[in-house]
Amino acid sequence: MAGTDTKERILDTAERLFAAHGFAGTSLRAVTKDAGVNLAAVHYHFGTKEDLLRAVLSRIVIPVNRERLQMLEQVEAAAGSAPPSLEGILEAFIAPDLRLIRDLGERGVIITRFLGRSYTEPAEMVQALSREHYEELGQRFMEAFARALPEVPQAEVYWRFKLVVGVLTYILADTGPTMGGYAEDLSDVDGTLRRLVAFLAAGLRAPVPAPQWQDRAGEGRSP
Amino acid sequence: MAGTDTKERILDTAERLFAAHGFAGTSLRAVTKDAGVNLAAVHYHFGTKEDLLRAVLSRIVIPVNRERLQMLEQVEAAAGSAPPSLEGILEAFIAPDLRLIRDLGERGVIITRFLGRSYTEPAEMVQALSREHYEELGQRFMEAFARALPEVPQAEVYWRFKLVVGVLTYILADTGPTMGGYAEDLSDVDGTLRRLVAFLAAGLRAPVPAPQWQDRAGEGRSP
DNA sequence: GTCTATAACGGGATAGAC
DNA sequence: GTCTATCCCGTTATAGAC
Q1: Which of residues 6-35 of A touch strand D (CB under 7 A)?
Q2: pTM, whole model, 2 decimals?
Q3: CATH level 3 topology of B58-175+184-207
Q4: C-alpha A199: how far from its chain's center?
Q5: pLDDT tens string B52-108
């Protein structure tokens, strides 16, 4: 197949096993055994186990996030000085992840699972790595969402963006038929994308519920 | 504090460490050391490490799911033969989780994090346990959602229900300020609940996008 | 019920030959 | 670059004294 040299085989195998069993649940011995390489090779090429994870994650995330930003810039450029398209921003955020599946076949499924898992992986270091890769990106997208949703308070937009991340994470990490046995075909990128965007755009645009037991006198809002 | 006998201290400590580091990332030695009990005690009281996890998970999930079903039955009874309230179903699904935080204080935060992690924990056994607890519950709720959303195709309702689970999972598992440093106060149960319901209800009710490149002759839909 | 001691094994990491 | 051999520690689990 492809990638027959040692370093690449280690990356591919680690990617697959991290996706399947998590970081703590994957031993270097399992990786080297599956990859058919020597245990010492992983230390020679990458250093520590943590360094290996860093390499695996970077190889995936960096190009995906670059594509996200490119798509976002196109959406913003198309809007000019007007508020950018909410649906466009959502597509820019979601599509690059989904496309991995279609473009990379079986490995795409593995990778998306790995990505979804990375968000919620308990290991502190994995989380630190995730933050490292997503912090500025999140800021950029949150600002775009805020511009696209002028009628929603900014704090609420930021909070709802987290819900968007949650949905995407869960969809990616999902191993198949979870509740009720209804399986999802993620390889239908266009269909999944349109249905996700429809759901999320409606949620993002929803009227913000007013605080219920908070009676601020002097604010002339009549329900 | 509370729970000074050995068995309970083990449960409390395991719950906290599983939530923080995951199942694979938590050793029994760490549990017994933190709990101030002997390593052999955990085997005496629970058996294997997997049995301990089962005990920790059951202690939390069983009463929460019971409350979910009770709330769902009330919502359905209130609706009579009419479609049940979508917002009511969402509250029945979400509120019991959120209430844990308010009612149990610091331990509530730990528990919800543990619950959120359980959904995406890589270990096959954890997933099997989760399925075991949520399979019938998911079926019941999916049917309720389908009745509340007669204008949405059933397959789409089922798929969107998974997105609801994803949002809840992510909110629960979230360790704090993730993207952009915007922290959420989950202890405000009523506020969080109303804002979650507003977002999710809008998403669930969103018009279903029609397949784009699918030209079914004989269907009189003019765009 | 609770402890010590230990079995039996797997973990990450490294030195040094080739 | 790749291998063997090994260090050293942590892991789950159990046996048996108290």
Answers
A1: 6-7
A2: 0.90
A3: Tetracycline Repressor; domain 2 (1.10.357)
A4: 17
A5: 999 999 999 999 999 999 999 999 999 999 999 999 999 999 999 999 878 888 888
